[in-house]
Amino acid sequence: MEKEATMADMGVQSHAGERGAESTRNGPVFVPVTDIYETEQALFLALEMPGVDPAEVSITLDKRVLTISGRSHVHAPEGCSLSHHEYRDGDYERSFTLAESIDGDHIEAELKDGLLRLKLPKAQPAPAKSIHVKAV
Amino acid sequence: MIRYSPGLEVWGEPLATLRRIQDEINRAFGDQRFTPSAEFPPINIWRSTDGVVVTAEIPGIALETVDLTVHQNTLTLKGRREPDVKEPDVSYHRRERTYGPFSRSIALPFAVDSEKVRASAQNGILTIELPRPETDKPRKIKINPV
C-alpha cells in the first residue's frame, strides 16, 4: 500500500499537447519517445533524440516543470538527393511535471548515441521536528 | 525488404507507406508513439552519381553493436535494442520505447563491393555509404568522326 502511495506521488505528468507556442525555426518539432522508471533513490528518464548534439540540448527546471528541448543538426549527404524517406529531421521538445520529492539541484544528464538519459534523485525527507511548547 | 527503385517505392509497400504517414502525423501533432513504428530503424535513402547513402535513426544503439552485411546488391542491418535499465527493482511509469531484435534489408540498384562500404554513426544517426562500382558508372562514349 505504501509503495503505491509513493508511486502516485512520484507520478510524472507530461505536457505533450502544448502546442500554443510556435517554434521560430523552420521544421517539425517532435515529442521525443520517453521511458520513465523509478528506483528507491531516483527517477530515471530516457528520451530518444536522434540527430541532436550534446551541445544543443537544453534542460530547464522551472518550479516543478522540467522542460527538455534539443535542436537537430543533420545535414543531407553532400551531392545527394533523397529518394526514399521514412523519417524526418527536426527538433525535440517535451515537458514533465515533477513531484515535490525530486531534488532539483542534483539532476544529472548525459546524451549518448542520440539517447538522453536523466537521473533525478529523490530528496531526502526532512526529519520530523518536535516543537517545544512553552508554558505561559 | 525495400526495393530501391526510384519512383516506384511508393507502390512497393502501400501499407507500410500509410503507416509511416500516420506515424509522422502523430509525431507532428505531439501524439506520443505508444505503438511501435512500422519498422525499425526508420531509414532514408539518398542517391548521387557516385552511389547510394543510407541513413537510419538508431537512438541509444552503439555502432559496434549493429551488424551490417552486404551481399551482392542487398544491404542488411541487424541488431538488438536492449532496455536501458541497469538498476534492480525498478517500476515503470512510462514505457514508450520499444525493445527487441531488429533487421532490415535494402535491395540496391547495383552490386556493392563490401570492401568499399563505409559506415559511421553520430548522435544516433547511422550513415552507410555504398559507392557504385566503377563498372556500373555511366561512361561517356566518344564518337569518332568518320
List keywords for this structure.
heterodimer, A: mainly beta, five-stranded mixed beta sheet, four-stranded antiparallel beta sheet, 1 helix, 10 strands, 43% strand, disordered N terminus, B: 146 residues, mainly beta, Immunoglobulin-like, four-stranded mixed beta sheet, 13% helix
Set down the secondary structure blueprint.
The complex is a heterodimer of chains A (136) and B (146).
Chain A: H1 2-10, E1 13-14, E2 29-30, E3 34-38, E4 42-48, E5 52-62, E6 65-72, E7 81-85, E8 91-97, E9 108-112, E10 115-121
Chain B: E1 2-3, H1 9-12, H2 14-28, E2 43-48, E3 51-57, E4 67-71, E5 74-81, E6 91-95, E7 100-107, E8 118-122, E9 125-131
Parallel strand pairs in B: 1-7
Antiparallel strand pairs in B: 2-3, 3-9, 4-5, 5-7, 8-9
Report on this model:
- The complex is a heterodimer of chains A (136) and B (146).
- Chain A is mainly beta and 136 residues long.
- Helices cover 7% and strands 43% of the residues of chain A.
- Chain A contains one helix and ten strands, in the order H-E-E-E-E-E-E-E-E-E-E.
- Chain A has one helix at residues 2-10; strands at 13-14, 29-30, 34-38, 42-48, 52-62, 65-72, 81-85, 91-97, 108-112, 115-121.
- In chain A, the strands form two sheets. In chain A, strands 1, 2, 5, 6 and 8 form a five-stranded mixed sheet that branches.
- In chain A, strand 3 (34-38) and strand 4 form a beta hairpin.
- The longest helix of chain A has 9 residues, at 2-10.
- Mean pLDDT of chain A is 81; it is low at 1-11.
- Chain B has helices spanning 9-12, 14-28; strands at residues 2-3, 43-48, 51-57, 67-71, 74-81, 91-95, 100-107, 118-122, 125-131.
- By secondary structure, chain B is mainly beta.
- Chain B has a domain at 38-84 and 97-136: Sandwich (Immunoglobulin-like), CATH 2.60.40.790.
- Chain B is elongated and about 85 Å long.
- In chain B, the strands form two sheets. Chain B has a four-stranded mixed sheet with strand order 1-7-5-4, with no helix packed on it. In chain B, strands 2-3-9-8 form a four-stranded antiparallel sheet, with no helix packed on it.
- In chain B, a hairpin with a 2-residue loop joins strand 8 and strand 9.
- Residues 7-11 and 32-36 of chain B have low confidence and may be disordered.
- The interface between A and B is large, with 48 and 50 residues.
- Strand 7 (81-85) of chain A pairs antiparallel with strand 2 (43-48) of chain B, so a sheet runs across the interface.
